[in-house]
Amino acid sequence: MGARLIQVGHVGRPHGFRGEFMLSNSWGEPLPEDLAFVYVGREEEDAVEHPIERLTEMPRGLRIKLASFESDKTVKEHQGCLVFVPQEALPPLESNQYYVGELVGSEVREVDTETLVGNLGGIEEVGKGCADRWWVNGADHTQYIFPATAEVIFRVDAARRIIWVRNAELYRQIQ
After folding, report:
1. Helix (H) and strand (E) counts for the chain?
2. DSSP summary character for residue 89
3. pLDDT tens profile 77-121
4. What per-residue string of b and e applies to 6-20 under the rule 16 or more CB within 10 Å gives b?
5. pTM of this prediction?
6. Residue 75: count of CB within 10 angstroms of its CB
7. How far is residue 2's CA from residue 4's CA, in Å, rounded to a whole number?
8. Which one of 31-35, 80-84, 109-113, 140-144 scores highest in mean pLDDT?
């Protein structure tokens, strides 16, 4: 697979019983209409290519049918798996722009102290009018959930894969 993969969501709930499912879109952009395949796996390293039969915009997201997903049972076996798209299949970006999905795995640091908070583990799209949630696996084995707002996400350096945040301790989840 040599191409850089961008996480665009994960396999959501089945839609019917013929292998269609709702793609939870974690990157906030529509997928290209001419997209021929996606990769599905628990992590980028184990993602497998799956040809797309159909993409349908629905009021609450994107319904997708993969050729290799034959039933709702197949969907349930893959539910929660990550869905990736090769970066070259996505529209090109202007300088200083990035796809949010390409940030997964980036270091997250406290802006004032440069202290390592952890690594971005995933992004959750909350809904129209609400800030997405950025899930960070903490260096101290805890989890942080940051709202993706300018007040919290201070700066993103996509090229260096570093995200600077403010007041990380406020978003630490008690376990």
Report:
1. 1, 13
2. G
3. 999 898 999 988 888 878 777 877 788 889 999 999 999 999 998
4. bbbbbbbebbeeebb
5. 0.70
6. 26
7. 7
8. 109-113
Nearest partner of 161 among 115, 100, 112, judged by Cα: 100
Cα-based angle 86, 8, 80 (whole degrees, multiple of 5): 120
Residue entry with tokens 């008690």: 174
Query: Looking up tokens 């994960």, which residue turns up?
Result: 10
Complete edge-to-edge strand list for the sheet that includes strand 116-124:
153-157, 162-165, 107-110, 116-124, 133-138, 143-147, 172-173
Alpha helices in the chain (DSSP H): 72-78
Residue 85, CA atoms < 13 Å, CB-side half-sphere: 24
Q: Is 131 exposed, middle or buried, given 0-12, 13-18 or 19+ CB atoms closer than 10 A?
A: middle
